[in-house]
Design goal:
The complex is a heterodimer of chains A (556) and B (566). Chain A is built from 22 helices and 16 strands. Chain A has 556 residues and is α/β, with parallel strands linked by helices. Chain B has a domain of 147 residues: 2-Layer Sandwich (Chitobiase, domain 2), CATH 3.30.379.10. Classes of the chains: A alpha/beta (556), B alpha/beta (566). Chain B: Belongs to the glycosyl hydrolase 20 family.
Chain lengths: 556, 566
Amino acid sequence: MARKSAFLLLSALLSVLAPVDALWPQPRSITTGSSALRLSGGFDIVIGSVRNPPSDLHQAVDRTSGFLKNDKLERLVVGRGDVDRAAVAKAKTLSRLTLSLGKGATARSIAAEAQKAVEERDEGYVLDVPADGSGATLTANSTLGLFRGLTTFSQLWYQSGSTTYTIEAPIHIEDSPAFPYRGYMLDTARNFFPVSDIKRAIDAMSWVKINQFHWHIVDSQSFPLQVPGFLELSQKGAYSSSMVYTPQDVKDIVSYAGARGIDVLVEIDTPGHTSVISKSHPEHIACAEATPWASFANEPPAGQLRLTSDATAKFTSDLLVAVSKLFPSTMLSTGGDEINASCYAQDAETQAALNATGQTFLQALNSFTQKTHGALKKAGKTPVVWEEMVLDFNVTLSPETIALVWISSQNVKGVAQKGHKLVHAASDFFYLDCGGGGWVGANPNGNSWCDPFKTWQKAYTFDPVANLTVDEAKLVLGGQHLLWTEQSGPSNLDPISWPRAASSAELFWTGPGLNVTSVLPRLHDLSFRFQQRGVHTIPLQPLWCALRPGACDLTA
Amino acid sequence: MVIVVFLCLLILAPFPSSLGLWPIPRGLSAGTATVKLSSSFDIHVAFNNVPADLDDAIHRIKTHLKTDTFERLVVGRGSADANSVHRAFSIKDLTLSLTQNVTIRPVAVEVNTVGIEDRDESYILTIPAKGTQATLVANSTLGLFRGLSTFDFMWYHFDGEKYILNAPLRITDSPAFPYRGFSFDTSRNFYPVSDIKRTLDAMSWVKLNVLYWHIADSQAFPLQVAAFPELAARGAYSQEEIYTESDIKSVVKYANERGIDVVMELDTPGHTTAIGMAHPEHIACFAKSPWTKYANEPPAGQLRIASADTVNFAKKLFQSAIDLLDGTMMSSGGDEVNLPCWNEDEDTLAALEQNNQTIAQALDQFVQEVQGVMNANGKMPFIKSDMVLEHNVTVLNNTGVVVWKSSLDAVSVAQRGLRFIHQPSNYFYLDCGAGDWVGNNVLGNSWCDPFKTWQRAYSFDPYANLTTDQQHLVLGGQMPIWSEQSSSENLDQIVWPRLAAGAEVFWTGATLPDGNPRLGVNATSGVNAFARLNEVRYRLVDRGVKAIALQPKWCALRPGLCDVDS
């Protein structure tokens, strides 16, 4: 009896959550019917009661109309679009979607809404698509919410012949994200990516409602960012004069992202991962390209900022402030991962300074961080750091500092116990680069340090609040997939990222708890839609399986 | 004393590190002079009746010399060589000639009419340090083609010039193994012809010479054959995802003209579910559940080997495919047959009883029948190793065995005296390491974990565990891509540059040009193979093949500095 009622409850839940096949991430509340509904030839998206709609909202509407015309995604079923031809032929037509803002809401640009502090963004929306052909409506309290709703709307439709349709009308969605931070990190220093690749990645992120592009823009290998006042860094440190991001490129990317509901969190990793600064400023770098590199760094080339030097601290602070002016985000990451003590132990200058002041290396790191973070704070930015700064180095951080947990998901608890807000970026779940084998030379049997490959299922089954108390759980801002690019470049950006990165996008939008097996058909749909839009996603299964949901389950 | 040591070091250096040849020629002497191509550089052929496909190859190279923009991987790139290029002698001409008394035949004919062990791919290429004439000599147009591939893939670009740093150059080259392949599954997911042709181009640049085309499988049957057009009509993923007869001919021609043979595999009797879409009468356990009991992956389904009708169908299918194919080789596959599938199939059981046969006997007879069709058409038959090692079927003496499960199986095949190619999953499978792809196996790993790095493939020893007497049985080897998790979207990235590792293993063989072993502690050092393979990767990208990066560019520009011990 108890079992039966539990079963009934479960089925009730399932019907409430009955997914529209093609939506990703799954809305947090959705009801659907079983009527066919098609878009009329003159289908139009109208910006209704929005006073002075911003231009990026107009552009978003135009892009959405473009997707409705050009996606041409046939349903993933044996027979594809033909299967629905008859049902769709008789269907009612939808001729209009009307957008409106809630009472009292001001129409700011999507970008301005997206660039607010991460917890202050309003991404909620209500989308209603009646089955009887009367107009569909989309309402939200911000243009950002409207944008999220448009993204959902564009995923509702399939193509059969020349007809664009759904077979699940009426559809009613009330949606908002479970977590405010849903990110994707790209390293553009190990190998360089042109602006066009970054924009395509931003498009893809926006389609799954990712709202934070974490841009690990420089590292020990190259410094592609042109910073006003510090042009020598990229002049000497970029891979070539064409492999740079000019301030105009950055502006372009930030605005492209903003118009797509995405904030850009730039990272200038300090004090480690800075070898390349030695090309223009050898005075600031300890153990620059010292060998054997394995004694001084986690990967070649070695080199870290001389954190005992006042001049270096000033240089770093000024650099961070100069960079901060290029990015409107409220956050900026100063990195702080993988600081190597031997590098400083064998650097005569650093040792002399420590001896002179009687400081330990950790004390020096602390005061260095106080200076750089102090400068950032003055510039109005919230600092973001990698987990070691919180867990290993006992650095005094301002309470609003956000920590990225990367080494292991096991370390989340420790960061939470220190009271810092945190973002999940654990290598054991979210690293897209793992499993490609070692990349250093003369190491024929070397494996990837974070073996094995992280499947989409692995990321999807992550529990964002595992082992956390209720209060600690409130510190979880969200999470992200990450691509470190030692073994990636423009050639494989799409297939190594997609559709895997969509799994964290749903996890942190919809929240945990969906069944990883039953979501596979939707992920196929998303992946095929990405392909229709020109993003080269990797296939998750043979097409035979994609056309037959469940038939390739282990137990089928 | 110091001078003597210095000289020894020079002699021991395996080859000049700035010479980006892949695969490394088997005989090589190189100098240290820079030479460039004259602005009027041209390629001439010193004989008449030049076959059209050789002429086409020459034109492709001349185009590459105009369009390639690959600059040497060094800090500063091409500008690092600007001064020496400026002062360099210019090569005005490459002249191709054949040794006397050979018959001039098209490259394609050398490939598709000559047995795999009888081809002559050798060539001698010379580039002077101070002269104007480069020469290429071979015993066949195929040899000339290989030499042209070397010439095609060796130049650095800078400021409108094409140059090398290692003249005078004399390359005396021929492959260590006759069979150097790539196995391509176009069934689990479909690839358009343009993808196959782009892959063939890249294969030819690293002197691979066999496309082993696993064209159909249980999931889809994209092959259109005249005898049974319904197989593709019903068994392909869609009408657009079919290889028509003219597609097949066009691929084979394209391959042959690039020195590449096409070995089509019609995998039988397992891996044939898709045939049941049009001919359910020939398929046992068609899409039967649970698939784990009846097949290694979904959907289950195997040919009814005990049925005379099915055997006749299979023979006719092979004949119809053969009618489309030039070449001297073909494969009937034969991996992963599943006994419960037949044991629970009433039709099969009835036929076995009627024939008074066991499954083993029926399987043996089936293999002999399809091998008979291949043999009658002059095709050397290939078969998967489990047919021989696990099912002990009778095969023709000239059969080539594809050793796939494990590298350790090679010895067992050799003990049977059969020739074979290496395709071990523990070294060469390009698809391993991306997690399981079946549903609801949430944290499942790839069955052949981990990912096979290029270093792993490169470290393969073709003669491992074999006696000297058995070594002649090794025809060569191939790296396969199985396409459960691959498609047009990621073909280049999953294949390149890793496939080039296999190309060098089987072209260069055991020893480097100086006689030192190819394998050894530092084989994959950044100053050795790694530096050259980084070049291959950047050259491929330059020509539009989306090969993955092997390292940060910082490392690629500084050979050796990213070694584990540097």
